[in-house]
Please model this.
Amino acid sequence: MGGAPKTLRNTIILVAGLLVFWQLMYWIIGDVAMRSPWQTMRYTLTLAQTDLFWVHLANTLQAFGVALAIAVVLGLLIGFALGLHRLSAEAMEPMLVALYSIPKITLYPIILLAFGLGMSAKIAFGAIHGIVPVALFTLNAVRSTRPILVKTGRVLKLSPPAMVRSILFPAAVPEIFTGLRVGFSLTLIGTVLGEMFAAQHGLGYLLMNAIGLYNVDVIMSVTFLLVVFAAAVNGVLLAVDRRLHFRV
Model:
């Protein structure tokens, strides 16, 4: 019962510490490359009152939402397909790990040639960041399922879809959710990177344009918004993740 207040207290301490560190860095570096927390928040409120900002935000959220859906669906399909077939898992897992370790920015020229500039390219770039971690966590979750459950499904002569729906998915939900949490973060990074290099709309484009114009106010505000959004959603997902593991 004391867990929630303790978590809230730790969160407040962490946020306060980060704000103090931010202010100290601003005093050291100065206006040449940074803005203070107060200046950034004040400019963010001003930026949020412009119609152009909401156009860019809506574009980013649309691309990110589609990319995340693709990453989750394909990641789950790949993870369950490999988890149901041990030989395929042993052959493909090293390839997935190798793909996961490759800096995805090296694949960007291929993405551009395949999808062109615009929404489709940044969706694809966001999705390729999230598919592999979701697939790997799902694969390991399925592989870690208690053998007695799998044997029960085989005794009942369940089809692969029925096996996944009735046995594997419920048993593997905690680990799968951890993969979804990691996939969320990486998909967001991929989407923003895609907007920075080959888009004319979105927060990533706004950030890249601000870098080119050396507009420190916009750089700090957009970065602040992205960090707040990612931290808030990850906090919620982490709380759910811990609850699922605790129940297990």
About this structure: The chain has one domain: 50-247. The first helix runs from residue 3 to 29. The radius of gyration is 21 Å.
